[in-house]
Design a protein that fits this description.
It comes from Cairina moschata (Muscovy duck). Residues 44-55 have a biased composition (Basic residues). Keywords: Activator, Differentiation, DNA-binding, Nucleus, Transcription, Transcription regulation. The chain is 64% helix and 4% strand. By secondary structure, it is mainly α. The longest helix is centred in the middle third of the chain and has 55 residues, at 60-114.
């Protein structure tokens, strides 16, 4: 038995006079795929070279030189970024060392005060504050005295 496509069978049955079969398909005018060089994209037929950006014929040497220049600039930016980060790390490390030294000084002061001794640095701070308060009080009294004399001499 010979196997034929459905369209061939339909045309043979139509020629034989079989009226119960499907109607005859005329294959001469139907086209399932475009016959030219066009492409089907998203259900739409696109013909090459009609619209859009045309590929430019770029000189290969110029393209390679631009690529090299871009790579040089990228490496320079990377180097600057790493320098900045290294400076940032070193400044933070210096700040950490200074804070550790200050913490150690405060620990020593606390240990000395626990033993009943007042460190000389704390005495200097206290006397400096007392002197500052005394100066502030004397300036306040002087200003108050001036206002009293001004109010009594009308």
């Amino acid at each position: 038995m010979r196997r034929d496509s459905p369209s061939t069978q339909n045309s043979e049955q139509a020629l034989a006079g079989d009226t119960l079969s499907q109607p005859v398909l005329n294959l001469e005018h139907t086209c399932l795929a475009p016959m030219d060089d066009s492409k089907v994209v998203g259900g739409k037929v696109k013909k090459p070279g009609k619209r859009g950006r045309k590929p430019a014929k770029i000189d290969l040497k110029a393209k390679l030189e631009r690529s090299r220049q871009s790579a040089r600039e990228c490496r320079a930016r990377k180097k600057l970024r790493y320098q900045y980060l290294e400076e940032l790390v070193s400044s933070r490390e210096r700040a950490i060392c200074a804070l550790r030294e200050e913490l150690e000084m405060y620990k020593q002061w606390c240990m000395a005060m626990d033993q009943g001794k007042i460190p000389s640095e704390i005495k200097a701070l206290l006397t400096g504050e007392e002197q500052g308060k005394a100066q502030q009080n004397s300036t306040k009294l002087a200003k108050a005295g001036k206002t009293e004399t001004n109010s009594s001499n009308p």
